[in-house]
Design a protein that fits this description.
The protein has 11 helices and 10 strands. It is of the alpha/beta class. The protein has one domain: Aldolase class I (TIM Barrel). Strands 1-2-5-6-7-8-9-10 form an 8-stranded mixed β-sheet, with helices on both faces. The termini are far apart.
């Protein structure tokens, strides 16, 4: 329901090429039970990801550590906002156990923003990376991190654990940052990526953004150039999908042909891999991304 005195925001009909299947299948159910048994969280569920059925059926999930309550309130995100309570010190090993049980070749670990913690949660990220490597040394580890409020010390704690991929999303073009993200800054996000590459040259860096929030084509091109300027290796580009009526409205649905054009532009700029399409999300086809970026 809209607040009194406001007009309802028109809802754009979803095009036929942006349909997803209802999640089902034995692997999907098996992974769902595993997550419940080990008291784990996944961003697939918390963020209402449209690819959950496909990814879980392929036994791929993005584990979300540090609880399910975020200290920020980004206007595109469905994750619960509030004041988190405490840190689960046993969580890193439970995640590692799940990764081992699934026999994963590549795992993505993300978190809510934890601005209430002195290190922003970097220490738990590092512990999780090391726990996974102890249990399954052959598994590559990708981390999708918040900005740690720009703390170089926190980033160093994480990078000392040597993730295979350091992912931090700019989310949108520079002009729309304050409208879309809470307590985040475009230049600070670029600085996170730049510092990560300087701290660990062997780690791939990765970022992503959503389209359909009102950005222009030139602004998209500029964001791609800005990411390459900080030596970002991989970029993911997908369609923004509104989680609820309380989130930012969709300005437009970007056709698949435009996503294909952006992919070609990104590859021409020198990215090692560009994943661009309506349903693309940060960890969509993550294992294939790292393979393509390293061959």
């Amino acid at each position: 329901m809209n607040p009194p005195g406001t007009r309802p925001i028109p809802v754009l009909p979803r095009p036929d090429w942006l349909r997803v299947r209802f999640p089902t299948g034995p692997n999907y159910l098996d992974l769902k039970n595993l997550v419940r048994e080990r008291s784990l969280h996944t961003v697939c569920e918390e963020a209402h990801c449209p690819n959950i059925g496909e990814c879980w059926q392929h036994r791929t999930a993005t584990f979300m550590i540090l609880g399910r309550v975020c200290t920020r309130a980004c206007r595109f995100c469905a994750i619960t906002t509030g004041l988190p309570v405490g840190v689960d010190r046993e969580e890193p090993d439970r995640v590692a156990q799940a990764v081992q049980q699934l026999g994963l070749r590549h795992v993505v670990v993300t978190s809510v923003a934890r601005d209430d913690l002195p290190d922003g949660g970097a220490g738990i990220f590092a512990e999780t990376i090391r726990a996974i490597r102890r249990r399954l040394p052959t598994c590559s580890v990708e981390v999708l991190i918040p900005d740690f409020e720009g703390s170089a010390e926190s980033l160093r704690i994480l990078m000392d654990a040597r993730p295979d991929i350091l992912n931090h999303n700019i989310e949108t073009v520079e002009r729309l940052q304050r409208k879309v993200r809470a307590k985040a800054f475009y230049e600070r996000s670029l600085e996170v990526l730049r510092r990560a590459k300087e701290m660990e040259r062997d780690s791939l860096t990765k970022s992503g953004m959503m389209l359909g929030l009102g950005e222009t084509r030139e602004e998209i091109s500029q964001a791609l150039r800005d990411l390459r300027a900080v030596d970002c290796d991989i970029v993911t580009i997908g369609q923004y999908l509104r989680p609820s009526e309380f989130h930012l409205p969709i300005a437009r649905y970007v056709p698949p042909s435009e996503f294909a054009e952006i992919k070609l532009e990104g590859m021409a700029l020198g990215f090692k891999h560009v994943e661009s399409g309506p349903l693309v999300r940060s960890s969509y086809h993550a294992h294939e991304q790292v393979q393509r970026a390293t061959t």
